[in-house]
C-alpha cells in the first residue's frame, strides 16, 4: 500500500529583489493514514510554506507531491476540487483566519455549500453535528468571531476543516495562539478526531513539547532543508544533528530541580536568499570543519532516523 | 519591611467602558525583595500586564481606574506622587521591558539614540558621554557598537529585544518589570535572552518582576511565583512551593495541562471551561466553575487566604486540608 501523502524532493523558491529565497529546499517524506508528522523549526525556516505547498495553496518550484499514490503536483481544475475535499488546513491565528462578517454557522456552512453535494436541510444537520463534534454549544450558532474567545474560534477553524471529511489536514501552529489550559483542550480534541476518523495530520509548530506529544514522526527543518527526521521518541532520546540538540536543550522545562545545561547557539538564523551550497547551520554550529562546506547528504543513522550532518558520528 | 523594594497592598484596577466595568485586578498583595526575581504567571486577560503597568502608572486613565490599594516603592506610595516625581522614577529607578520588541522601538530613530535618550534624560551628562554609555550598553547586551546608527528594521526580533533590554537597563534601575520578554521569540533565541537577563541581573543586582504564561520560563529564572487568576493571586510562594507542592486547584490544573517531555500518556488533562468574563465575575471563588473539587460553599462567598506553610499563600477553602 502506498502512503497517503508523499513529498519527493519538494522545492519552493520565492523570487525576491536579492535573489531566490529558498523557503523549501528538497524535502521528502511519506505520511500514512491515521498518522501524524510533526514539522518543527524556527520562524522563517519554511515550515508553513512546506505545509501550504503540500496542499497546493502554493505552486511548487520543483519536486513532486503524491496523494494516495497519484501525482498531484500539477492538478487540473477538476482534480484540485476533489483534492480540496481530501486535504484541508487549520490556520495558526484564529483571530484572522475567520471571516468577521460570518456567523459561526455561516462559516461552517460555507465549505458544504461550495461542495454542493447536500441539500439545505442536510447541510443544517451536518453543521449542527460538526459543532457538536468540535464542542461548540448550539447557542453560539449565530455569534460572530469577535464575540468568541481564541479557543472557540480555533474550534470553528477545526469544524470548517473537517466539514468535507478530509483524510489529511495540515495543522499550521493550531495551538500556539492559545493559553496552555485551552491548548490542552484543543490538542485532546484533535487526538479524538484522529482516532475516530483515521485522519492524517501534518502538525507544523515551533513548540517542541507539543510536537513530541502529538507526533509519530518528527521532521526538523532549518533554512528550508530537512536536517533530521526520526520517530518522535527516538528524536528526543537520541538527537543527532547539532541543531536538533541545541533546539531540544533550549526548551524551558517546568521543573526547578533539573535545570538543564543549555546549549546556547551563537547568532541567529541566517538569510535563506541565495544560500551557499554547504551546511546551512554552519554559521551557528560549534563543530564546523572543512567538510561542512560541501553539501550535506541525508544519511540513515538507524532505522528511519535520517540526519544531514557529515559530523554526527564525531559529536555524540 | 526594609528589605522589600516594592510592596503592593490590595491593589484594585477597573476599566470603565461604555457598556460595562471590567474588573481587571481585584485586591492583589505582592512584595518584591531586593535582588529577587518574582514570576507572575497566568492566562491571557488574568491581569498580569495591568499590575505591571500600575506599578509604573502608565495605564491610560480613563478607561482604567484605580479603585484602591497602595503601591509602596521604597516605602513610599507611588499613587500619591505627582506626575513630575513619577517621571523621575519611570525608566530610571523602575524600568520596563515590553512584550513585543517589534513595536516597542521607535521605527524612525536610530537604536543608539533611543538608548542614549533615556540615559540623558535621567542623568546630568553631556551628549558624547550619553552616547558613550549607550555604546557600552549595546556591547553589554551583545550587540556590536558599530550598529549604533542603525534603525530597528535592520535588526532581527531577538536583536530588537536586546535593544529594548539595553534601554531598560541603561539607567541601572532597581526594579525591572519584564512583560513577556521572550514570548515573541523562538526557543533558541529565548534561551539566549534568558541567559543574558540572568547574567545582567547578577551584574546589576536589580529586582525583577517577570510576567509570563510559560511555567518553563518561571522554573528557569524565578525565586518566587504568584499565580494570577481573574485579577487575583490564586497562589503565592517560593518556586519550591509552587513547583513541588502546588496547592491551588488552578495551579495543579495548569501543570496538568502541559505536555510533558518525559511522559508517554496519550491524553492531556486540560482544565475544563474558560476563565470567567471579567465584566461579570462570579461572587464566590473565581475558579469554582472550572474546579473539580468545588462545593456549594465555593460559589457563595470568596475564599480567604490560607497560609499552608510559611510564606506559601493559597486562596482556596480546601487548601491545607490535603484534598485540594
Compact overview of the structure:
Chain A has 316 residues and is an alpha/beta fold. Chain A is 31% helix and 23% strand.
Structural summary, described in words:
The complex is a heterodimer of chains A (316) and B (324). By secondary structure, chain A is α/β, with parallel strands linked by helices. Chain A is 31% helix and 23% strand. Chain A has one domain: 3-Layer(aba) Sandwich (Rossmann fold). Chain A has an 8-stranded mixed sheet, with helices on both faces. The relative contact order of chain A is 0.15. The longest helix of chain B is centred in the middle third of the chain and has 18 residues, at 187-204. In chain B, a hairpin with a 2-residue loop joins strand 10 and strand 11 (232-238). In chain B, the strands form 2 sheets. An 8-stranded mixed sheet of chain B has the order 7-8-9-3-10-11-13-12, sandwiched between helices. Chain B is an alpha/beta fold. Classes of the chains: A alpha/beta (316), B alpha/beta (324). At the A-B interface, helix 6, helix 7 and helix 9 of A face helix 6, helix 7, helix 8, helix 9 and helix 10 of B.
Question: What is the fold's blueprint, element by element?
Answer:
The complex is a heterodimer of chains A (316) and B (324).
Chain A: E1 5-16, E2 19-31, E3 36-40, H1 47-54, E4 62-67, E5 70-71, H2 77-86, E6 87-90, H3 104-115, H4 120-134, H5 150-162, E7 168-172, H6 180-197, E8 200-205, H7 208-214, E9 217-222, E10 225-231, H8 232-237, H9 242-249, E11 299-302, E12 305-307
Parallel strand pairs in A: 3-8, 3-9, 6-7, 7-8
Antiparallel strand pairs in A: 1-2, 1-4, 4-5, 9-10, 10-12, 11-12
Helix pairs in contact in A: 3-4, 3-5, 4-5
Chain B: E1 4-16, E2 21-33, E3 37-41, H1 48-56, E4 64-66, E5 70-73, E6 76-77, H2 83-89, E7 94-97, H3 101-104, H4 111-122, H5 127-140, H6 157-169, E8 175-179, H7 187-204, E9 207-212, H8 215-221, E10 224-229, E11 232-238, H9 239-244, H10 249-257, H11 296-300, E12 306-309, E13 312-314
Parallel strand pairs in B: 3-9, 3-10, 7-8, 8-9
Antiparallel strand pairs in B: 1-2, 1-4, 1-5, 5-6, 10-11, 11-13, 12-13
Helix pairs in contact in B: 4-5, 4-6, 5-6, 6-7
Amino acid at each position: 500500500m502506498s502512503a497517503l501523502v508523499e513529498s519527493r524532493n519538494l522545492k519552493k523558491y520565492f523570487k525576491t529583489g536579492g535573489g531566490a529565497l529558498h523557503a523549501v529546499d528538497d524535502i521528502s517524506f511519506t505520511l500514512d493514514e491515521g498518522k501524524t508528522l510533526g514539522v518543527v523549526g524556527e520562524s522563517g525556516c519554511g515550515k508553513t510554506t512546506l505545509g501550504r505547498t503540500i496542499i497546493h495553496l502554493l505552486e511548487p518550484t520543483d519536486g513532486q507531491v503524491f496523494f494516495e499514490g497519484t501525482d498531484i503536483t500539477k492538478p487540473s481544475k477538476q482534480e484540485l476540487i476533489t483534492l480540496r475535499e481530501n486535504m484541508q488546513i487549520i490556520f495558526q491565528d484564529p483571530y484572522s483566519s475567520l471571516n468577521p462578517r460570518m456567523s459561526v454557522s455561516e462559516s461552517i456552512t460555507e465549505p458544504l455549500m461550495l461542495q454542493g453535494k447536500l441539500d439545505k436541510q442536510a447541510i443544517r444537520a451536518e453543521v449542527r453535528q460538526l459543532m457538536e463534534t468540535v464542542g461548540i454549544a448550539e447557542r453560539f450558532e449565530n455569534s460572530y468571531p469577535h464575540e468568541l474567545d481564541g479557543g472557540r474560534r480555533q474550534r470553528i477553524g477545526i469544524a470548517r476543516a473537517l466539514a468535507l471529511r478530509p483524510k489529511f489536514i495540515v495543522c499550521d501552529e493550531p495551538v500556539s495562539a492559545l493559553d496552555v489550559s485551552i491548548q490542552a483542550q484543543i490538542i485532546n480534541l484533535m487526538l479524538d478526531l484522529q482516532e475516530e476518523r483515521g485522519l492524517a495530520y501534518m502538525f507544523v509548530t515551533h513548540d517542541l513539547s507539543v510536537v513530541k506529544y502529538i507526533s509519530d514522526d518528527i521532521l526538523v527543518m532549518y533554512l528550508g532543508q530537512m536536517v533530521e527526521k526520526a520517530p518522535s521518541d527516538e528524536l528526543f532520546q537520541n538527537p543527532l544533528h547539532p541543531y536538533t540538540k541545541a533546539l531540544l536543550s533550549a526548551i524551558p522545562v517546568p521543573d526547578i530541580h533539573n535545570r538543564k545545561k543549555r546549549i546556547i547557539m551563537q547568532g541567529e538564523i541566517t538569510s535563506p536568499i541565495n544560500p551557499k551550497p554547504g551546511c546551512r547551520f554552519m554559521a551557528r554550529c560549534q563543530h564546523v570543519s572543512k567538510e561542512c562546506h560541501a553539501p550535506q547528504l541525508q544519511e540513515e543513522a538507524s532505522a528511519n532516523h535520517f540526519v544531514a550532518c557529515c559530523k554526527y558520528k564525531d559529536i555524540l | 519591611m526594609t528589605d522589600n523594594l516594592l510592596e503592593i497592598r490590595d491593589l484594585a484596577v477597573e476599566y470603565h467602558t461604555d457598556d460595562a466595568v471590567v474588573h481587571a485586578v481585584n485586591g492583589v498583595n505582592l512584595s518584591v525583595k531586593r535582588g529577587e526575581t518574582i514570576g507572575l504567571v497566568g492566562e491571557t486577560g488574568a491581569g498580569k500586564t495591568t499590575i505591571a503597568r500600575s506599578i509604573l502608572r502608565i495605564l491610560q486613565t480613563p478607561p482604567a481606574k484605580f479603585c484602591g490599594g497602595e503601591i509602596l516603592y521604597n516605602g513610599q506610595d507611588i499613587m500619591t506622587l505627582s506626575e513630575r516625581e513619577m517621571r523621575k522614577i519611570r525608566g530610571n529607578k523602575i524600568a520596563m521591558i515590553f512584550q513585543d520588541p517589534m513595536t516597542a522601538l521607535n521605527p524612525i530613530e536610530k537604536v543608539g539614540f533611543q538608548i542614549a535618550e533615556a540615559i540623558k534624560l535621567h542623568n546630568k551628562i553631556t551628549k558624547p558621554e550619553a552616547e558613550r554609555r549607550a555604546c557600552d550598553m549595546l556591547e553589554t547586551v551583545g550587540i556590536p557598537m558599530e550598529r549604533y546608527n542603525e534603525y530597528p528594521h535592520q535588526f532581527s526580533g531577538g536583536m530588537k529585544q536586546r535593544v529594548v533590554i539595553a534601554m531598560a537597563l541603561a539607567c541601572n534601575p532597581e526594579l525591572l518589570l519584564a512583560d513577556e520578554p521572550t514570548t515573541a521569540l523562538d526557543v533558541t533565541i529565548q534561551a539566549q535572552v534568558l541567559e543574558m537577563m540572568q547574567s545582567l541581573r547578577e551584574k546589576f543586582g536589580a529586582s525583577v518582576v517577570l510576567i509570563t504564561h510559560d511555567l518553563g520560563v518561571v522554573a528557569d529564572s524565578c525565586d518566587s511565583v504568584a499565580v494570577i487568576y481573574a485579577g487575583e493571586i490564586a497562589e503565592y510562594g517560593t518556586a519550591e512551593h509552587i513547583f513541588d507542592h502546588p496547592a491551588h486547584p488552578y495551579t495543579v490544573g495548569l501543570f496538568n495541562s502541559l505536555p510533558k517531555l518525559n511522559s508517554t500518556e496519550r491524553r492531556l488533562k486540560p482544565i475544563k471551561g474558560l476563565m470567567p468574563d471579567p465584566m461579570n465575575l462570579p461572587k464566590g471563588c473565581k475558579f469554582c466553575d472550572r474546579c473539580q473539587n468545588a462545593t456549594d460553599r465555593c460559589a457563595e462567598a470568596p475564599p480567604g487566604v490560607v497560609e499552608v506553610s510559611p510564606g506559601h499563600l493559597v486562596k482556596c477553602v480546601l487548601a491545607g486540608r490535603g484534598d485540594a
